[in-house]
Hints:
Elements: H1 3-38, E1 148-160, H2 161-167, H3 169-172, E2 179-185, E3 190-193, E4 201-210, E5 212-213, E6 216-217, H4 220-237, H5 248-262, E7 265-272, E8 277-278, H6 279-288, E9 291-293, E10 299-302, E11 308-314, E12 329-330, E13 332-338, H7 345-363, E14 365-368, H8 377-397, H9 405-410
Antiparallel strand pairs: 1-4, 2-3, 2-4, 5-6, 7-13, 7-14, 8-12, 9-10, 10-11, 11-13
Amino acid sequence: MTELQMGLIGLGATAVVGVLAYNKWQEHRQRKLAESLLKPHHEDVLLGERPKAAPAPAERGEPEFRGEAPETARERREPVFVDPNPTIAADDVATARPQDDMPQAPAFTAPVAPVAPPPAAPTPAVADEAPDLPAVDLPAELLDPRLEYIATMELVEPVSALQILHSQRAALVRINKPVHWIGFNERSREWQRLGLDGDIAVRRLRVGLQLVNRLGPVSDGEVMIFANAMQALADELMAVADMPPSNVLEQAAEIDRFCAAVDLEIGLNLVSRGGAFSGTKIRALAEAAGMVLGSDGLFTRYDDSGRAQFSLQNYESTRFSADALRTLTTHGLTFLLDVPRVDHGERVFQQMSEIAKRFADTLQGALVDDNRQPLSESQLDHIRREFIGKPQATMASFGLAAGSPQALRLFS
């Protein structure tokens, strides 16, 4: 064997040993990175002890408010009026289902102040690759660990938000619950929602699967799809997906029972006493009251922040539209207030009642309940206190104010 051959053999052996040593070093480095990310830095809000959940309304002998199957559309709730004045003859008022006493917040409820989200996991210390990121709490208005199942990812290098959003779209489209994407904008030093209308590069990512909406609680299959998609995304981004290993189905069921107890929609009906209402007069009155006609066929009044307060719809089947109102006539209108989605509901209901009375005076109509029985001032006051004030107080005791961003997500 020549010296050249011996030299080549020696170089080859040296290269093999070098590759094996490099692979071993990389394996050790990645293990350290994973242990740093997976090590718990705080008490898990979903695993912490909590008192036993309150029984469902049916177990307490109380009526349930969500009787629909999860996939059915939500119907308007119709409460039975309990007349505070025995001299007044009235059976039903407004539009929500009956209840004796507004149930208390369920056993898993937090104090009056909303539960703070868990602190963000620190960035793993990887030498010469990325500096430590600042610790900035994720606002509960964006993601709430009580209401969403949150995957946490810390990336070594910034990644385009558009790339992140498109990565698992095909898998997540099979989920029948909203998925919220939140990233930390290092320029503004704030957490923000990621959307297709703007592209930023992020290294801190939080993705939340909403546990409940008006279609009901999340299913086991949806949780599995979400978890698998987050793991696939983490593999693609060379990150580690940290997800709380709790029983999210039980948590979702408890939240859904709580939502069912306060999910009310109040309606005031205005019917004609003789001739039909003219569409042009309806539009003039609605616009004078600050209401705007939308593509959903409703006139809606908004507050200064752009949040819907109450709406007006046709009592008959024809939907309102700019063209239809020119020739439309109807024998009834309905004013609607979505209780959990409206801030300061009692005050807004008072405003809606005053506008409905002005409509009645101008159109020569009468305010009635669903049985076409006239609504008196005492009945309107009872609706305001019992079917708006009490449910919203119950929501506040849970740290979930009516009309808050969390409430708008839950009751959607």
